[in-house]
Amino acid sequence: MTVRTARRTAQSAGREAATSRWLGWLARGGLAARGVNYMLIGLLAVQIALGAAGQQADSTGALREIARQPGGAVVLWLLAAGFAGLALWRLAEAAYGQAGRRGHTAGKRLQSLGLGIVYGLGCAGTVSFILGTGGHTSGNNRAQDLTARVMTHSGGRWLVILTGTGLFAAGVALAVYGLARKFTRHLAMARTSARTRTAVEFLGIAGNVARGVVFAAAGVFLVAAAASFDPEKAQGLDGTLRKTATTPLGPWLLISVALGLAIFGIYSCCEARWRIVRPG
């Protein structure tokens, strides 16, 4: 067998695996796991807005809440498997392109690669939490520690500013993605009723806008940390949500954003049902 033939055989096997039914089910399971994660984060944030003490509205807080429940360990392993499924699905898209007319562009492939890495880290963090080898530190502390380390290096402040600017831009893009209903391009809902489509569209708009607000706010805090050379101004998800309660709108803004994140969790479960998950 020549090298070219072997390469074609490997590519064919890879594409067959990427378009297989089992990877599709893994992706759908991962979307449901993401939904559970966001619903818990949103509910924890609502509790914080209502004055609950000791809560932590981020992924670590969500994992702790699950761990406290009967059978929590089993659910945590299912979440880890779900994030692993999401990572594999996105990496398959990076290799073979996303579904849709423009899914094979370099930008779409890079987007899938980035998301694959993010979900892979989410899986690793969940496993680390289960095994007790890490993952218990709050997102705020991790963000502040990492910002402090980066800013000790030459050019570190500019890197933090660029990262914060990127987060802000991503937040704006997410909000536009939701408001423009671009997410509907990835849903196979032609056979569903108009009422169901309208409900899912509402969930997608509200959820993506809420995520966009949180990402943009986190980016602003990161830029502020670099500009003032104060790493403690950097905020993780929990800190970003808490900061919204200090605005003139008070806890009502936090409740609105928190409900939006919970709605995104519900929308993710809808994606688990109707998302087109086969790579292009």
How much is the average pLDDT? Answer: 81
The helix-strand sequence is HHHHHHHHHH
Inertia-based shape: globular
The tally of beta strands, per DSSP, is 0
Any idea how many domains? Answer: 1
Number of helices: 10
Q: Please indicate the percent range of residues in DSSP E strands (runs of 2 or more).
A: under 5%
What is the alpha-carbon Rg in Å?
20 Å
End-to-end C-alpha gap: 28 Å
**Which class of secondary structure composition applies to the elements?**
mainly alpha
Task: Give the assembly state of these chains.
Answer: single chain
Main sheet makeup: none
Helical amount among residues, as a percent range? over 70%
- Uncertain segments of ≥5 residues (pLDDT<50)? 9-14
Secondary structure layout plus pairing:
Elements: H1 3-18, H2 21-49, H3 59-68, H4 72-96, H5 106-131, H6 139-151, H7 156-179, H8 194-227, H9 237-244, H10 251-274
